[in-house]
């Protein structure tokens, strides 16, 4: 074990502490143990180490059980940094060659995916198919980042944004917001409700 690579136990403790620090609905570590996405992250940490040691099938089986229990799918080949916070967790997907930096926040329904088998099967073996996410990035609800793109440090990918190009450090990628129209009153309202 090198000085740069902390122990698994230390990383799991950091994961627990980040839930307490970033989720205002969590008051303490005991309550954080019930956080929906924490088990998915912890199982990923173990499955990733199995994957690195050549236990690919066993790692996939462990990951599959975590997905069924938590609705979070993290491929054991993906590389996740320290203090990654997955808020809510529902429908998060992180692909095999994705790399996620330290101190990243991922909201529910985020996909870090590939562009599709029709392109990916043509790539040379070992080529990255999934995004690289820098440090201190926020990925908003239902954000989708596809392909071997890079998201720079401190970037924010807003809710519902679709990203398929590199994003520079500190940039904000925002999807269009809803248009609010004034209420219809009088005879027009009667016609709309009919």
Task: Please tell me about this protein's structure.
- The strands form 3 sheets. The protein has a 5-stranded parallel sheet.
- By secondary structure, it is α/β, with parallel strands linked by helices.
- α1 runs antiparallel to α3 and α3 packs antiparallel against α4.
- The longest helix has 15 residues.
- The chain has one domain: Hexapeptide repeat proteins (UDP N-Acetylglucosamine Acyltransferase, domain 1, 3 Solenoid), CATH 2.160.10.
- The chain has 6 helices and 14 strands.
* SSE order, one letter for each helix or strand: HHHHEEEEEEEHEEEEEEEH
E-strand count: 14
Work out the helicity level. 25-40%
Spatial strand arrangement across the major sheet: 1-4-7-10-13
Number of helices: 6
How would you describe this structure in keywords?
194 residues; alpha/beta; UDP N-Acetylglucosamine Acyltransferase, domain 1; 5-stranded parallel sheet; 6 helices
Condensed summary:
It contains 6 helices and 14 strands.
Task: Itemize the secondary structure elements and their pairings.
Blueprint: H1 8-22, H2 29-32, H3 38-52, H4 56-70, E1 72-74, E2 79-80, E3 85-86, E4 92-94, E5 99-100, E6 105-106, E7 111-113, H5 117-120, E8 132-133, E9 138-139, E10 144-146, E11 150-151, E12 156-157, E13 162-163, E14 172-173, H6 187-193
Parallel strand pairs: 1-4, 2-5, 3-6, 4-7, 5-8, 6-9, 7-10, 8-11, 9-12, 10-13, 12-14
Helix pairs in contact: 1-3, 3-4
